[in-house]
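Quick one:
INPUT:
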């Protein structure tokens, strides 16, 4: 046994004491030395595979710009294919949280998968930045302090379109969407303003997600007396629906309109001239002339073999931008999750879609604009040309009661007799309100 002198006993004891005092800090420093792990639950196969690919590419563009190192730590993306199946998406989410111990989770594309993931994410206090799935409930009765959404709620691109279609296209409309939550949400939002604007629904149909033969539905549309169709389809469903609509001879007589996903650049090359004239609502088009978007389109095309970025790539870009800014704000320390939530909530930057910010009441993005776009042949090929727009489209957030962050006090007034606290109106911005002391009269 080593002989313990008074000197080395004191040395050991004080080191131990210092260690005890520094313990959590030392442990934290060690644990934070590894990479920041970002888990992606996305479809890399199936109907929405092209969406998963675009979202991933948008993220990679931002992380590559940062040399894959932020706040002193490497960025590691762990990609999982949810195969568009809710049970698979939930299993992959559990694996990323429990085994990989990711710092931040992102995805999914499918609203049903998001609803399935929600409780695991919420109960494990994992930060999820939703990069596509629009399930309205996630900004409403199923909202969570730990969940943010950079993409859209299903309500956002569709609600402005109801009134617009009734006013500018037709009042006799047939509506169609795949038979699952996003389809119901999106058409529900359209109806919300279409009917009060005097619109009449002449028919409504919900083919299965992944339908390849729309002939029975197109026959119904032809027989319905509709003057226009409003549709939500995406990925390979959008390719099949738009092409078959044209092949069926409906394009000339019944105007096709819908949610922007119907004619995004991920599907436009496959749709070709069948998409010309289709009118849709969306928060993005690569034709936006703001400088951030011009740079984004140029860099995206250079990195991905000339591919035109779509709204999904913009969602991936914004998701990564939120992550990068948050990691810089906390110096790469991802252990203090409430702090990370606090900095994410305050994200504000120039995105390709315009000024990006979250609604602090719901953690859902406020769309600077929903553009009404028409597919036309323009200089760069077939694209969505903006013809009108609606500003500041914010989900109503009905039923969401997120804890409000406390105001940030500059100093308190309790110790100063004759003075009381008041919010400084000059400094008030969103939830971050600062306190001034007012002399009581
Ligand atoms: C969804 O399931 O929420 C969803 C999927 C594809 C889209 C938009 C929304 O293009």
């Amino acid at each position: 046994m080593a002989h313990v002198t008074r000197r080395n006993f004191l040395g050991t004891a004080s080191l131990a004491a210092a260690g005890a005092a520094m313990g959590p800090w030392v442990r934290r420093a060690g644990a934070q030395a590894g990479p920041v792990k970002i888990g992606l639950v996305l479809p890399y196969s199936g109907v929405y595979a092209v969406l998963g690919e675009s979202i991933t590419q948008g993220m990679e563009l931002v992380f590559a710009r940062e040399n894959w190192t932020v706040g002193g730590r490497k960025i590691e993306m762990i990609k999982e294919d949810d195969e568009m199946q809710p049970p698979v998406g939930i299993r992959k989410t559990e694996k990323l949280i429990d085994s990989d111990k990711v710092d931040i989770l992102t995805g999914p594309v499918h609203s049903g998968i998001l609803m399935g993931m929600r409780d695991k994410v919420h109960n494990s206090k994992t930060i999820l930045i939703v990069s596509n799935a629009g399930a309205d409930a996630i900004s409403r009765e199923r909202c969570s302090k730990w969940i943010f959404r950079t993409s859209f709620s299903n309500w956002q691109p569709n609600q402005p379109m109801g009134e617009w279609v009734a006013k500018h296209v037709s009042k006799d409309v047939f509506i169609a969407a795949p038979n699952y939550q996003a389809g119901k949400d999106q058409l529900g939002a359209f109806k919300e303003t279409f009917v009060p604007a005097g619109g009449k629904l002449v028919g409504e149909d919900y083919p299965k997600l992944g339908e390849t033969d729309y002939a029975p539905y197109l026959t119904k549309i032809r027989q319905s007396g509709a003057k226009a169709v409003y549709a939500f389809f995406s990925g390979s469903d959008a390719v099949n629906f738009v092409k078959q609509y044209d092949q069926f001879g409906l394009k000339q007589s019944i105007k096709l309109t819908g949610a922007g996903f119907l004619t995004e650049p991920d599907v436009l090359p496959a749709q070709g001239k069948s998409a010309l004239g289709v009118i849709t609502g969306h928060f993005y088009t690569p034709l936006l002339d703001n400088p951030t978007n011009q740079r984004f389109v140029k860099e995206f095309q250079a990195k991905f073999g000339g591919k035109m970025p779509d709204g999904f790539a913009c969602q991936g870009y914004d998701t990564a931008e939120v992550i990068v800014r948050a990691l810089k704000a906390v110096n790469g320390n991802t252990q203090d999750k409430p702090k990370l939530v606090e900095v994410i909530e305050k994200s504000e930057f120039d995105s390709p879609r315009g000024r990006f910010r979250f609604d602090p009441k719901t953690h859902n993005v406020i769309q600077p604009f929903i553009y009404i776009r028409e597919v036309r042949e323009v200089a760069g090929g077939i694209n969505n040309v903006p013809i009108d727009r609606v500003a500041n489209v914010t989900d109503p957030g009905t039923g969401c009661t997120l804890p409000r962050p406390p105001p940030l006090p500059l100093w308190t007034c309790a110790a100063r007799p004759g003075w009381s606290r008041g919010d400084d109106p000059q400094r008030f911005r969103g939830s971050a309100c600062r306190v001034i002391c007012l002399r009581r009269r």
